[in-house]
Structure formats: C-alpha cells, structure tokens
Amino acid sequence: MKLPKIRELIEAITALIKGPYTSKFPTVAHEPHPNFRGKPKFDDKKCVGCLACEEVCPPGAIAHEDITDGGEWPKRKMIHYSDTCIFCGQCQAACIAEHEGIKQSNEWELSFFDRKKEGQEAIEKELQLCEICASPIACKDHLKWISEKLGELTYSSPTLYLSRLKNLGIIDENIISAMKDNGRSDRVKILCARCRRQTTL
Ligand code: SF4
Ligand code: SF4
Q1: Are 165 and 171 in contact (CB under 8 A)?
Q2: High-pLDDT (> 70) share of the chain, %
Q3: In the chain, which residues have pLDDT < 50?
Q4: What is the pLDDT, as a whole number, of residue 53?
Q5: Do residues 199 and 191 touch, judged by C-beta distance below 8 A?
Q6: Helices (H) and strands (E) in the chain — how many of each?
Q7: Predicted structure pTM score
Q8: Domain with 115 in it: what CATH number?
Q9: What pLDDT sits at residue 145?
C-alpha cells in the first residue's frame, strides 16, 4: 500500500477542518473581489451627458435618445444595455466627469427574463435647445462643464456665457426671448452652430 505524501496529508487535514474551498453559492451570496469589474452604472449627478462613453464603447452597449417634444423639459436619455456590454471599462476610462459619470460596479448577477425591462438602465439629463431652431445643442451640465474648463475664455462664445449666466440665475429665459428681431440681437442668444453661422453672416 502506498502511503500519502506529507503535503497531501496536510491539505486533507486542513480541508477537513476549514471545509471545502468551493463557494456555497447560491445558499450563501457570492462576494466578488473588490477589483471585480461588473456592470457599469451611470451616476446622474456626475454625468454631464457628453456622449464620450457612447463613442468609445466597443459593442455599442451605450446609446442615447434626445427627447425634445412633450414633457416638462427637453432631455437626453443615456441608456446602458447589460445584454451587449462586455465589461471592458472603456466607458469609465473615457468619462470626462473624472471617470465618475459611469462606473463599473461589482454587480455580476445579470440574468433576467425581460430583456427590455431588466436589461437596460437609463438616466436623464436636461438638454439646451437652440433659441432659434430648437435643435439640441448639448446637455446643460455639459455646457457648464465646458465653461468651467475654459474659464474667462467662455466669454468669447455667447452660447457658453449665456448658459453660464442662466446657470448662475443672472438672466432668465424671458429676457432672451423678448429680444426676437431676426437681426443683430439674435447673435446674443444660445444658438446651435448652424444658426450661429447664419446670424453671423
Ligand atoms: S464596460 Fe465596455 S462594453 Fe460595457 S458599456 Fe462600458 S465601454 Fe461599453
Ligand atoms: S459624462 Fe461620462 S458617463 Fe456621462 S455621457 Fe459623458 S462620458 Fe458618458
């Protein structure tokens, strides 16, 4: 009869005392490693709706929808689809909001019955519309983010400085909309690139 080696004997005794190495899932909930890269989640307070994450997402698991008709305010819906996400972390790496607008969580249990209901998560950000043609320019938080980065250079762009003044509560919508003359005063409005070009010309 062959005798067990000392190492195997020690391992057998340790296993008898400590129990099996395999986890007891599903009886006991699984605790992922702290560095585990699971389902990415948007943070609606930190995300500025810039779409950088959508641009870099390899499988197209992030999409957006601009809703400008109906509802209280025009909004951009940022959507994440868990069923196509490959958990690569590119969205978090590219996020301009200090990598906190979208962050990978340790959520790993992603099986679901209803793909449309459970397979996607969305946040909403308020959009700034052009004051002439009403097309979306950017999210209000994104314009604020740009003007904070530019500092005093913000004042070279009426769209940026008017958005900033609105944010600070110094001007309101009525003052701007009262100045409708299809002329010089149109230049002092929050405009999309096309309307800015047309009014300038
Ligand atoms: S983790 Fe990768 S695949 Fe998933 S949403 Fe982010 S960029 Fe797209
Ligand atoms: S702020 Fe970050 S999470 Fe939000 S849209 Fe931009 S890149 Fe995506």
Answers
A1: yes
A2: 91
A3: none
A4: 98
A5: yes
A6: 8, 6
A7: 0.81
A8: 3.30.70.3270
A9: 95
**Ligand 1 first shell, C-beta below 6 A:** 40, 57-59, 61-62, 80, 85-91
Residue 20 falls inside a structural domain: no
Interval between CA 160 and ligand 1 midpoint (Å): 31
Residue 9: inside a domain, yes or no?
A: no
Q: Do residues 103 and 141 share a domain?
A: no
Give residue 85 CA to ligand 1 midpoint distance, Å.
Answer: 5
Q: Coil, strand or helix: which one is 81?
A: strand
Helix or strand (DSSP H, E) at 24: none
For residue 149, the model assigns a pLDDT of 94
Q: Do 113 and 95 have their domain in common?
A: yes
Best residue for ligand 2 mutational test, from 102, 127, 143, 145 (most atoms within 8 Å of Cβ): 102
Task: Residue 159: name the closest of 179, 181, 186, 184 by CA.
Answer: 186
Q: What are phi and psi of 188, to 5 degrees?
A: -95, 60
120-129, strands of its sheet edge to edge? 62-67, 75-81, 120-129, 136-139
Q: Say if ligand 2 is within 6 A of residue 63 CB.
A: no
